[in-house]
Specification:
It is a single chain. The chain has three helices and no strands. By secondary structure, the chain is mainly α. The chain has one domain. Helix 1 packs antiparallel against helix 2 and helix 2 packs antiparallel against helix 3. The longest helix has about 35 residues. The N terminus is likely disordered.
Length: about 110
């Protein structure tokens, strides 16, 4: 648990955010790969050609980057480096979530 000083600034590293980004990003890589596999099966049986699986592969790499940066934040020796890695992981994670949401909409409209 992080302790706050009288100005409300945390005096310990915010490891909780990095831990959450690390675990959820790793899970999202698996989700992306699973959906790619399912989408390939459906697209081959219905003869549907889509870029959604390619976008999901790219999204898996985005989540992998977020996972890697969160790991670096957890392993950083200085608080300054930990915050940098954590901020970059946070941005990549949000980009990945946005991308997977857009791909979900793309898949929904291609299937219908």
């Amino acid at each position: 648990m992080a302790l706050d000083d009288e100005e409300g600034i945390s005096t310990t590293p915010r490891r909780e955010l990095s831990e959450h980004i690390f675990s959820v990003s790793a899970g999202m890589v698996g989700v992306c790969l699973t959906v790619i596999g399912l989408f390939r099966v459906v697209s081959r049986s219905a003869h549907v050609d889509s870029i959604a699986d390619n976008l999901l592969a790219l999204d898996a790499l985005v989540f992998l980057g977020a996972c890697f940066l969160a790991y670096l934040a957890l392993r950083a020796t200085t608080q300054r480096n930990a915050r940098r890695f954590e901020r970059a992981a946070d941005y990549l994670f949000l980009a990945g979530l946005t991308m997977v949401s857009l791909v979900a909409v793309l898949i929904a409209y291609e299937v219908i």
